[in-house]
Amino acid sequence: MPPRPRRLVPLLLVLVFTLAACQAGSAASSAADAPPVRGVTTVDAKDLKFLPPAIEVKPGTEVTWRFVDGSVPHNVKGDGFASKTQSKGTFSHRFGQAGEYRYTCTLHAGMAGRVVVAG
Q1: pLDDT at 117 (0 to 100)
Q2: What fold is seen in the domain 5-117?
Q3: pLDDT tens digit sequence for 29-70
Q4: Are residues 69 and 75 in contact, defined by beta-carbon separation less than 8 angstroms?
Q5: Dihedral sign, CA of 40, 44, 45, 49?
Q6: 93 forms bridges with which residues in the sheet?
Q7: Residue 49, number of CB atoms within 10 A of its CB
Q8: Distance separating alpha carbons of residues 19 and 41, to the nearest angstrom
Q9: Secondary structure of the chain in the HEC alphabet?
Q10: Which whole-number Å values give the CA distances from 58 to 2, 34, 36, 82, in the listed order?
Q11: What is the distance between the alpha carbons of residues 50 and 14, in angstroms, rounded to a whole number?
């Protein structure tokens, strides 16, 4: 006896949502792992992403994040730095030592970026 369509609907919904979640996670991580853009010191929090997702600066450079996603709040949280949650305005942090600094918006899963400080 073939399965009834009503029984398949919940299973198909779970499958669709699982695949969508996997895709969203992989897209975000690949964006943060993108080659860093050199010479850029401003990152926009917009459309639920950080643009550009990766930048490269010299030690001692101040990086500024601009919150330009309208009424959608964001924050920036990394190892040793964190902004308040805000939907407009800016947050800045000076990177003194060489290294790779990954950060996220703790409000939106998969919203991530990184700053590469190269001397």
Answers
A1: 97
A2: Immunoglobulin-like (2.60.40)
A3: 556 688 999 999 999 999 999 999 999 999 999 999 999 988
A4: no
A5: negative
A6: 63
A7: 22
A8: 35
A9: CCCCHHHHHHHHHHHHHHHHHHHHHHHHHHHHCCCCEECCCEEEEECCEEECCEEEECCCEEEEEEECCCCCCECCEECCEECCCECCEEEEEEECCCEEEEEECCCCCCCEEEEEECC
A10: 65, 18, 12, 20
A11: 29
Q: Which residue has the tokens 């998969």?
A: 110
Q: Whole-angstrom Cα distance, residue 69 to residue 88?
A: 7
Residue 41: CB atoms within 10 A of its CB come to 14
Q: What are phi and psi of 92, to 5 degrees?
A: -125, 150
Residues 39, 22: Cα–Cα separation, whole Å: 32
